[in-house]
Structure formats: C-alpha cells, structure tokens
From TrEMBL:
Keyword field: Hydrolase, Metal-binding
InterPro entries given in the database record: Calcineurin-like_PHP (IPR004843), Metallo-depent_PP-like (IPR029052), Metallophosphoesterase_sf (IPR051158), TAT_signal (IPR006311)
Species of origin: Deinococcus rufus
Keyword Hydrolase included in the entry's annotation: yes
Protein name: Metallophosphoesterase
Presence of keyword Hydrolase: yes
Domain Calcineurin-like phosphoesterase stretches: 53-229
Pfam families documented for this protein: Metallophos
Length: 293
C-alpha cells in the first residue's frame, strides 16, 4: 500500500507562502483555530437498527508535542454534554514516544463514560509512539514494540477503553461495532471486525479512510479520521496537503466507499506537523442513528 503525503512544517509553510492564508496562519489565527472545538451533529438511518443510537466520535487526539491533558479534558467535557450512548475513538490517541500510556492522558480517558461503553482503534501515530517505526521525532525503531502495544492496550482497558483490533462487539441485540487495525502500519481485516454481526446494524471504525475503496464487504456506516480535514485549508482550493493516497477525496465529511457504504471522515481534534489549523476546526462528531423507515 502506497502511503499518502505526510503533513510537515516544511510542506505547510511552502504551500501557504506568499498568500493571504499564510499571513493569517503565521499571524496567529491558525494557532487560535487549533484551540477551538466544533460539535458537529448528524442524523442518519442505519439499516438493521431497531431503536435510536447516539454515537460520539472522537479521533486524532495526538496527545504529546502540541496537546496536553487540559485540552483533552475540554474535549471530554464537551463530549459528555452530548449524552452519547457509546463513545468511539478513531485512533492516534498518542503523538510521543512512550513506554506505557502517559498517566495524565489516562486520567482524562478514565473520565470518558457512556452506557454502551468506550471503544478505540489504533492509528499510525500510535504505532510510531510505541516504536514500530522510526522518525526524527519518535526516535529509532524499538524491537519490543509489540510488547509496548500490548501494554498500552492493557492500560487503556484498565480505564474503560477497549481497543478493537480486527474484532467487533455487540453493543446491543441490534448493533455491532467493529474496529480494524491501522492501514499504514498494521494489517486491517474488515471481515474479522464484522464477523458475527449477523442481522445487526454495523458500524466499522477505521483510523484511515483509505480502506474505503477496497472494502471487501459493505457496512452500515464507517467512521474514520486520520486526515484532519487537511488541517490547513485555503479558500476556494481546499487543503494543499491531505495524508491520503486519494488526495482530497476522503479529506473530511460524508463520503462513500465500496458497496455503496456511507462513511464519515472527521476533522479530528489534535494537530500534526504544525500546531495550526485554518478553516478546519477541531471536531467531535455526534451521530444520531435511527431505524430505517
């Protein structure tokens, strides 16, 4: 699988240099926008559902270089105000090299609560944070990265966050949630994530939306993050850089995958590469799903 472009400080500043958007971002507007938050609300029918379900979807927290516990606390407080039935996390919780989960982040994640539980998947930055790949920021590859990943999953489970790595769970008699491994650094298995769903409504969580064109089977709904909506968007042009093999096709919002599968790609919450956003505010997506008429 060929990776899409990775957003870096150099790419962003080069793309924006000389334009009005660059002046706004460099002048501080981009930093201010990165600290904002929008609760986006969506209503959609979900085949197989017998009663309404409210889902809060948070993705790309990127706790580490640019995001601290205080910012995560604000996001969690805002999420609780929406009174979701279930909370789904779309990966990239971490953005720093770790031995175990950072205690400040764990304390905030422990505050997450919903009647049907809290579930997460792995993202590419989670893999970098545990040492699966090397980078200038994360450091060298760690031979013990599988053990680190297992420990992080245990740390999350201890505070009530269940990682779904190519597996799923029945939230209720009428709804199944499955999560797949990261596309870039893991081995996503959609069939395994949706195995056992039967006639239940299905929600599939994939950190990276680039799984959509090659879905081996349909799902009722796919939720993804990863792209940050491009993070830096320019009027009339959109995002100069999107970390996707498909350009702006899956940058953000409602899109469609194989088998006419509807998908929502969140703009995410944190930042990567640069601590800036422009015309692309951080987002918690709240989806009110209801039975098909």
């Amino acid at each position: 699988m060929t990776r899409g472009p990775v957003l870096t400080r150099r790419h962003v500043l080069r793309a924006l240099s000389g334009g009005g958007a660059a002046l706004a971002v460099v002048g501080g507007a981009g930093a201010v926008q990165a600290q904002g938050l929008e609760i986006t609300r969506h209503t959609r029918a979900l085949p197989g559902l017998r009663s309404p379900l409210r889902v809060a979807f948070l993705t790309d927290l990127h706790y580490g270089l640019y995001v601290g516990a205080g910012q995560v606390r604000r996001w969690i407080d805002a999420t609780h105000d929406t009174r979701p039935d279930v909370i789904l996390l779309g990966g990239d919780l971490l953005d720093l090299r770790v031995q175990d989960m950072p205690p400040p982040l764990l304390r905030e994640l422990a505050r997450l609560g919903a009647p049907l539980g809290v579930y997460s998947v792995w993202g590419n930055h989670d893999y970098g944070s545990i040492g699966q790949y090397a980078s200038r920021y994360y450091g060298p590859v760690r031979a013990d990265w599988p053990a680190r990943q297992a420990q992080v999953a245990r740390d999350l489970q201890a505070v009530g966050v269940t990682v779904l790595r190519n597996r799923g769970v029945a939230l209720r008699d009428d709804v199944h949630v499955g999560g797949v491994d990261d596309l870039w650094n893991g081995v996503p298995d959609v069939r395994a994530a949706l195995a056992g769903a039967g006639e239940r409504a299905t929600i599939l969580v994939s950190h990276n939306p680039d799984v959509l064109p090659a879905l081996p089977m349909g799902a009722g709904l796919v939720l993804s993050g990863h792209t940050h909506g491009g993070q830096i968007r320019v009027p009339l042009l959109g995002a100069p850089m999107v970390p996707s093999a498909f350009g702006q096709r899956y940058a953000m919002g409602w899109v469609q995958g194989a088998h006419a599968t509807p998908a929502y790609v969140s703009r995410g919450l944190g930042t990567s590469g640069v601590p800036l956003r422009n015309l692309c505010s951080p987002e918690v997506a709240v989806l009110t799903l209801h039975p098909r008429d």
